[in-house]
Amino acid sequence: MTEKIFKDIDEKLVSGDPFEPELQRLMEFKVRKVLLVASLWDYFMLEEDGRLIDLLGEAYKEYDLGYVPLLHRVDGGKAALEEIENDEFDLVITVMRIKDMEPYKLAQRIKRIQSDLPVVLLAYNTPELEVMIQREENRVFERIFVWQGDGNILIGIIKSIEDQRNAENDTELAGVQHILLIEDSIHFYSKYLYILYEELWLKIRHLLKENISYTLRKSRQRKRPRILHAINFEEGLDYYN
Asked: Quick count: other Cβ atoms within 10 Å of Cβ 93?
């Protein structure tokens, strides 16, 4: 089945179809710089499982993803807003407890500065978690994840945001296929979203072992199925349509 996904694009390239400009436009949105809003203590807790920067570097190198996102930390909402005013970021991840404002208020102010900048909330597994995620104002976040001690969650968040942003363009451009995940349990999708990507990369790496040209190799990497995560049937139906 995995081989079938790449059949059409391989035939285009082998037959000499001028597909290269389209290939360059696949996966146009990439998370290259992440703003992490977390105190030194929170950052220490996140690093306890292994250095986040090292995890990013090792994973992106292992799967030949071509770049490694930069991680820039600030310790509060005001500092985050100053950074966004003066620099360019592709993703903001904020922990649940920051020192100078509620995280949803930070997300609202970020959206007023840059409406298309994705903001993700990384919460801790506390007794009040279920109540917190039901709050209406938390809809300002692209998604809420729960920290369960595995730094690879950061990679899952980044790739999920990229796939969400690239899906429509890549489908229209090259007929990229998708894997639709409908899961409403924050604990479940926080745990296994990265595992889905890991399995997908292993499948694709198997296809790259063939004696193929550089162009075919890059096309197969960029044409991989996108994983779209919905938290309810209605959102899943929107993705499907």
From this structure: 23
On the CB side of 136, how many CA atoms lie within 13 Å of its CA?
A: 0
Classify the C-alpha dihedral 206-26-226-187 as positive or negative: positive
Q: DSSP string of 148-159?
A: -S-TTHHHHHHH
Strand-pair category, 119-124 with 143-147: parallel
Between helix 7-14 and helix 214-222 the angle, nearest 10°, is 150
- Alpha-carbon distance of 241 to 239, in angstroms, equals 5
How much is the pTM?
A: 0.86
Amino acid at 175: G
At residue 136, the 3 state secondary structure works out as helix
pLDDT digits (tens, 9 = 90+) for 175-217: 888 999 999 999 999 999 999 999 998 888 777 776 777 777 7
Determine how many CB atoms are found less than 10 A away from the CB of residue 191.
17
Distance CA 118, CA 125 (A): 22
Tokens of 140: 């300002």
Residue 90: DSSP 8-state: S
- Alpha carbon of residue 128 to chain centroid: 26
User: Tens digits of per-residue pLDDT, 213-237?
Assistant: 777 777 777 788 999 999 999 999 9
Which runs of consecutive H residues, i.e. helices, occur in the chain? Answer: 2-5, 7-14, 20-25, 40-47, 52-62, 77-86, 103-113, 129-133, 153-174, 186-207, 214-222, 233-240
- The type of residue at 48 is E
Q: List the beta bridge partners of residue 74.
A: 37
